[in-house]
Structure formats: C-alpha cells, structure tokens
Write a structure and sequence with these properties.
CATH superfamily of the largest domain: NAD(P)-binding Rossmann-like Domain
Distance between the termini: 33 Å
CATH topology of the largest domain: Rossmann fold
CATH architecture of the largest domain: 3-Layer(aba) Sandwich
Number of strands: 13
Oligomer: single chain
Shape: globular
Bound molecules: NADP nicotinamide-adenine-dinucleotide phosphate
Order of helices and strands: EHEEHEHEHEEHEEEHEEHEH
Structural class: alpha/beta
Number of domains: 2
Number of helices: 8
Length: 272
C-alpha cells in the first residue's frame, strides 16, 4: 500500500512513518526541505502538492502538518482536495486547541469555539476537509509526548536548563497522548471505514504544570525546579484553559490502547 505522509519529518509524522514502514506500507514522507531524506513539498503550493500526489498516487494520505493559517487551514484543504482527486483515503490530524475550554469534556459533536488563530485555522481545516471528503478521518488530539524530541519534553527540559524562558500553566488542562499510541491510532483508522471526527487523546486530564512535573520526573530531573504560573497572568491574550477530550468513542472503535500517563511507574525518558 502506497502511503503519503505529509509532515513526516515532524514529531508525530516521524513516528507514523516508522510504524507504517514496519507494517509494510511503501511510505513516501514529506518535509519542507530535503533534510532527513524526506521529499520536499510546501502545502501552500497547490501545484507542488498536485504534482507530488499525481506522481505518488497514494492509496492513503495522512496529513500531520501545522503552521500559520496558510499551512494549517489552506494547506489542509489543498491536501484534502488533491488526495480526493486520486481517490486516496485521507486521515487529517486536528487539535483540541479548536475548543475554547469549559469544565465538561468535549465530544466529537461539539463544534469548534476557537479563541486563538491556531485554533481557528485547525477549525477551518476540519470544515474544509470534511466538506471535500466526507469519508475522511479527522482526528482531534491533545498534547503529544513520548520522547526527548517531543515539543512538551523540549519545553520542560529547556525550562529546567535555562535554555527557555516562561512558566508552565497551572490553569491549562489537557489530555496528553503518547506519540506511539496516536500514530498507531491514525494507522488503524486509515485501515478502517471510520469517517468523520474522532477524539484521540490520553485518559488523564492534567494541567500543563503537572504534566511538566511528570516529564521532569521521567527524565530524572527535579520537578520542583519547574517554573509554574497562571496562563491568565501571562499577558498573552485568551487561550483555551480547560480542554478535556471525551474519548469514549475512540475507546469503543480502536484496538489501539491510549495509555494513561500517571500510571507509568518508573518511567524511562522514552515513556514519560
Ligand atoms: N504537538 C502537539 O502537542 C500537538 C497537539 C495537538 C495537535 N497537534 C497536531 O498534530 C500534528 C502534528 O504535530 P507535531 O507536533 O508532530 O508537529 P511538528 O513536529 O511541528 O511537525 C510539523 C510538520 O509539518 C511540516 N510543515 C510545516 N510547514 C509546512 C508546509 N508549509 N508545507 C509542508 N509541510 C509543512 C513540517 O516540516 P519541516 O520539518 O520541514 O518543518 C513537519 O513535518 C499537527 O497537525 C498539529 O496541529 C499537535
């Protein structure tokens, strides 16, 4: 099966590429440059996306890119349209950041209520992708962790080493997901008849601060050295605060297990 992974050089994309290759897919993975041996493509360049998809003629396209509006929203629409043009199955990666935040967990039926440009772009992408291809899978996910290369790990280790400034918010709640579980879920969904939006996130709701302390502990670092504070005190404008994804549907349709973070005892760095 020929599989095109758009954004294969990314944190999630590289794990999807690893698992897809191990499962026997003929993988073509993209990045914005040739670094790492990936095929370069810019999703904001429609002609380039069309040329790539016409050349590869994939059966499956997984889009795990993000960036500014042109990448996250317009680029997602372009990838969806060009995938549909060759009849490819499409799995699109969305985000919990399209929700505004509230005490009750969000189900797949909850329409986006974005409060940031990133959230709005991810919401626009969902609208475009599902309109272009109603049979596509759109996975809403949360903070992705699982190796020292992850953005969350980089932030925590950077703060501890003084390479990064800022604080970890005590008032932002998320449901972090292990990168290997998420990648496995994307490939399982690709191989299924599932269509539409699915929440795929971990079962534990934790603040960014608590999550950071778990990461610090898993890397043998002192969790109490992490600077923490309120997002609302940071002067960075509105942000989604309490965003918990209800994953009951994912747990009923997926064989892939979404592991708890708090229940991984004696974590090694790769496990957090
Ligand atoms: N990380 C999280 O905690 C998190 C949380 C919720 C949702 N998500 C979603 O999960 C997905 C994967 O996130 P990630 O953390 O793995 O992202 P990442 O590591 O930043 O990777 C982003 C990928 O997008 C590619 N890309 C960026 N601009 C592009 C463009 N103009 N044209 C083509 N490709 C472009 C990058 O290529 P280069 O390597 O060449 O730059 C890279 O392969 C994204 O859709 C994101 O919105 C992530």
């Amino acid at each position: 099966m020929s599989t095109l992974l758009v954004g294969a050089s990314g944190f999630l994309g590289s794990e999807v590429a690893r698992q897809a290759a191990a499962a026997g897919h003929a993988v073509v993975g993209t990045a914005t440059t040739t670094t790492g041996g990936w095929v370069p493509v810019d999703v904001t360049d429609r002609k380039a996306v069309r040329a790539l998809i016409s050349a590869v003629r994939p059966k499956l396209v997984i889009n795990s890119t993000w960036g500014d509006w042109r990448v996250s929203a317009d680029g997602a629409a372009t990838v969806a349209a060009e995938a549909a043009a060759v009849g490819a199955r499409l799995v699109h990666v969305s985000s919990d950041a399209l929700h505004a935040g509230r005490p009750a967990p969000y189900t797949e039926d909850d329409a986006p209520t974005p409060v940031t440009v990133y959230g709005a772009a991810k919401a626009a992408a969902e609208t475009a992708v599902t309109a272009i291809d109603p049979s596509a899978v759109v996975v809403r996910t949360s903070l992705i962790y699982g190796s020292a290369q992850g953005k969350q790990e980089q932030l925590v280790l950077g703060l501890l080493d003084g390479r990064q400034r800022g604080v970890l918010f005590t008032d932002e709640i998320r449901c972090p997901v292990h990168v290997a579980d998420l990648a496995g879920a994307l490939l399982e969904l690709a191989d299924s008849r599932f269509a539409g939006i699915l929440n795929v996130a971990g079962p534990d709701a934790v603040s960014r601060a608590e999550f950071g302390r778990l990461i610090a502990r898993a890397h043998g670092r002192d969790p109490s050295a992490l600077p923490t504070g309120l997002s609302t005190d940071a002067g960075i404008g509105p942000r989604p605060l309490d965003v918990k994804l209800d994953t009951s549907l994912a747990r009923s349709v997926l064989r892939t297990r979404l592991r708890p973070i708090a229940a991984v005892p004696g974590d090694r760095p790769a496990d957090v």
